[in-house]
Design brief:
The chain is mostly helical. 90% of the residues lie in helices and 0% in strands.
C-alpha cells in the first residue's frame, strides 16, 4: 500500500501541475486576446516614440548650444581681427590708380621724346 509520504508527495505534484496548467491556460488566453495584444503594441509604440522624441529634443538642444558657442567664438575672433585691422594705417585706395596713371604718362612722355 501507499505510505503517507507518497500520498503527500503525490498531492504536491498534482498541485504544482495544476498551477503550471493554469499558467499555460492564461498564456494561451492572452495570446488569443487580439484587443489586449493590440493595446499592448500601441502602448509600446507610444513609449518608443516618446523616448525618441526626448532624445531628438536633447540632441537638438545640445547642437544648438554647441552652434551658439562656436558662433560666439567666431564673432569674437572676427571682432578682434577687425580691431587689429583698424589699427593699421590706411592706404588710400585712389593712390594705386593715380600711380599707374602717372607712370603711364611718364612712359608716354619718354616714348614721345625719343621719337623726336
Amino acid at each position: 500500500m501507499s505510505t503517507p509520504v507518497d500520498q503527500q508527495q503525490l498531492r504536491t505534484e498534482i498541485a504544482q501541475t495544476r498551477a503550471d496548467l493554469g499558467g499555460t491556460v492564461e498564456a494561451l488566453a492572452a495570446k488569443t486576446d487580439v484587443k489586449a495584444r493590440a493595446r499592448q503594441a500601441i502602448d509600446e509604440t507610444k513609449t518608443d516614440v516618446k523616448a525618441r522624441a526626448r532624445r531628438t529634443i536633447d540632441d537638438t538642444r545640445t547642437r544648438a548650444r554647441l552652434t551658439a558657442a562656436a558662433t560666439k567664438d567666431r564673432l569674437a575672433y572676427a571682432a578682434s581681427v577687425a580691431k587689429d585691422k583698424s589699427k593699421e594705417p590706411r592706404v588710400r585706395r585712389t593712390a594705386v590708380p593715380v600711380a599707374i596713371a602717372a607712370a603711364s604718362a611718364v612712359a608716354a612722355a619718354i616714348v614721345v621724346a625719343r621719337r623726336r
